[in-house]
Amino acid sequence: MSQQRMLDALATEWDDVADRLDPETFTRLVALVAELQDAADSENSALIAEDIASLLGDVLPVTHPVRRALAEPVSRFRRPEVDWQRLSTDLSDRLADSAPRADLNRLRAADSLDAHQVSAGGGDPADPDLIRLPGADGPARWPAFQFDAAGAPRELVRTVNRYLRAADDPWGAADWWLGINDWLGGVPAELIGQVTDQALIDAAREDSAEV
User: Where are the domains of the chain?
Assistant: First the structure.
């Protein structure tokens, strides 16, 4: 697989790919693009590219340009240098031009904490059961509803986040908490303490079972 050709094809065919994906898969793709932008080195970038390839390889037809790029062989003896910065910038630019970007901005606009504040409250910024949203042009942020008045992580939220697979799909999990939930009749993050913990857990379990 040529990761560079695959990501180039994805940037070129972004609108077509977005139209073919269901909301959950598109949200996962957006999260991976954000991770690629934040990747610290080429090794992490390559692992994220593999995740993108796996995600799209399961949903795109074999004749699609991205799938064809995935199928292109790469010599074991002469592997091309990959310009990760250019690739991540190209994809981020395409993401910025697409309609779902407004949803990302809405989620990023919610009250949030930085890594230092999470640690000060006794939380672990690396906790996979806490939603961590990559910053648009800066450090990651953790939505504030996940923490109590003293800054400690809410066990209820951590439990719900496991049902929502927040570690794999932070944008989708944040959207669940901050969007209207018909089953609960309100915004889940605003209903913490207003409805029973079990009601929130049951709603998340029900929604995750439908995927």
Answer: 1-98, 104-210
